[in-house]
Write a structure and sequence with these properties.
By secondary structure, the chain is of the alpha/beta class. It contains 12 helices and 14 strands. The strands form 3 sheets. Strands 1, 2, 3, 4, 5, 6, 11, 12 and 13 form a 9-stranded mixed sheet that branches. A 3-stranded mixed sheet has the order 8-7-14, with no helix packed on it. Strand 1, helix 1 and strand 2 form a beta-alpha-beta unit. Helix 8 packs antiparallel against helix 9. The two termini are 34 Å apart. The model has no long low-confidence stretch (mean pLDDT 94).
Length: 345
Amino acid sequence: MKVAVVILNWNGIKFLEQFLPSVVSHNSSFSEIIVADNCSTDDSISFLQTNYPQIRIIKNDINGGFAKGYNDALKHVEAEYYVLLNSDVEVTPSWMEYIIKLMDSDKTIAACQPKIKSYSNKNYFEYAGAAGGFIDKFAYPFCRGRILDTIEEDKNQYNDEREIFWATGACMFVRAECYNLVNGFDEDFFAHMEEIDLCWRLKNRGYKIMYCPDSTVYHVGGGTLNKTSSHKTFLNFRNNLILLCKNHPPNLFVAKLLTRMVLDGIAGLKFLAAGQVSHFNAVLKAHYHFWKTLSITFKKRKQLKSEITHYTTTAVYLHSVVADFYLRGKRTFKEIDLRNRFMKS
């Protein structure tokens, strides 16, 4: 099979009921739809067996989160391309064909994402991916169409095909041989930013990550952990530090890591000042866990160093997106992009 659309499910029967019809309706003849179930306790399995007997079901032995869930499932999938698709995504006609055509045209493209728009407000981009992911010099992630928590309306301002830094895990097309080359997701991430880590490792191997504007999907977002969850805050802060530590080149690495400690501390105090004590505690917990497991992360860093073709700089913003947002009032990607401070190669 050329393409395997793999939907990871955990107690998501309501999303399967709502969004599987669009996936089935707009599926291609060269694609198989698979649901990988992370030990659901709802009626997801029986619903699929009754209503979609043509859909293959892979039952994971344990719920290891997003990262392990996909790693375990994809061991049982043979395809040229994997499409990792969240269960809360509505797809549109030809969403798959546009991206496969692009990836078929260039074997150095390891992963690609479509335009990700909000299901609840379809004129706007969606937080998780928007029009392609980037990082700044301190490894803070942001998107075309979403700077920190500010989300832009889609006015066709990002309708150009472009190399990006990371493709969202909400709808990621990834070449199977590339995914397997780097051993898939880092399971220690559990959930959140594992796709950025995967893309960074692929870019350090010389591959490209792309955004395809001709393909559009609509994402609900926050289906498992919404933005008010302190556990999500913990995962985001911890995983972002691990991401930086594993993949950043040696140049200025220590200085940037120390700067991140300060910036995260400011973010924690901001939570505290807003009365969000649980989120403040989540930042502290994230840093504690990062330092506690630092030896493990450095072992990974050492191993990756031996595999790196070259440390990528493509699509890295050379300044601080946090400073641009809070000190310079930059609220859109175009305002940042006008500074022409992205590395091109």
